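quick one, 181 residues, struct below
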Amino acid sequence: MASKILLLFLFFLAQHQPQNNNMVKGDATLIKRTCKNTKYYNLCFSSLKSDPSSPTADSKGLAVIMVGIAMTNATSTSSYLSSKLLSPKTNSTTLKMVLKECADKYSYAGDALQDSVQELADENYDYAYMHITAAKDYPNACHNAFKRYPSLVYPPDLARREEGLKHICDVAMAIIDNLEW
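---
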């Protein structure tokens, strides 16, 4: 669902962009220059280069691509947690409650990221940044939910997913920082 919305947004953005010859498209040079201004150059560069729309994207389009990658991460993590809820191995009521809370938090992160795409389209970069910041923070609430119950262990796979979402959000925010507001 989120990928369909992102694709529709990218199509809309491409169709309704004012023609501006000063906007450089997302060729390798723009992608390298953009990623050098982020905390995670390799993540930024490999993510943008792997997206087929990046060669024709401008800087704002590169930000939208990174937000889309973050949305995919948040959505897939929410689905992963929901599937853990249904697993016969998950028999603890407390664990089920925490997994549900975490699935909801990652879903909220996806919603915040979707909102940031709209804000980018409207060139409300400060609001886009705010939504990405919120999305980056939702995993902390999940982590804290596990901490409330000392008998529960924070799953290593979830820790990797949390770190991944935070890094992707950092990259998206750094790209937005370099857009002309």
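The mean pLDDT is 87.
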